[in-house]
Amino acid sequence: xxxxxxxxxxxxxxxxxxxxxxxxxxxxxxxxxxxxxxxxxxxxxxxxxxxxxxxxxxxxxxxxxxxxxxxxxxxxxxxxxxxxxxxxxxxxxxxxxxxxxxxxxxxxxxxxxxxxxxxxxxxxxxxxxxxxxxxxxxxxxxxxxxxxxxxxxxxxxxxxxxxxxxxxxxxxxxxxxxxxxxxxxxxxxxxxxxxxxxxxxxxxxxxx
Length: 208
Description:
Strand content: 25-35%
Distance between the termini: 50 Å
Number of helices: 2
Radius of gyration: 20 Å
Number of strands: 13
Largest sheet: 6 strands, antiparallel
């Protein structure tokens, strides 16, 4: 950045101190109709658990998986391996799904702010979602920012000045993010169920 101040040539060096990431994948050749049917069958057999979800159904860790879930798991671990390499983690570490679960959010249900302890990567794959449905929202880890940057000061928000970041995902989209990134999911205000598969991924030593 170069500027002139009272006849003095000034060059301002600009660096980012800290950063996070978000990765999306689309067109994964997954049969969402099969996954939707599987999700409703699981809900019939499983009362579910209550964690960050409010009113919506969240399964326990999936033990009984169909072929599409297995295919999805393979895609997740391959994607996390590429992510691991791009982020500079040690090459011999192997991404392994530590738990994976289903979410069915009907009208009025949502997920409270939370993060995913005990893992490195987390993510969500959307099986069914209407365009008008609520989205996943990430919040800045710099809590103090809200006391300094007000909307009235900003022409256009960017990753440095934003305190929240909303992802308007659609069916067939996978979102990968760091497990320590706090996020919440907006209420479903439609009559169409929002169905997704969420997961956590750890980095393990290669035993070979």
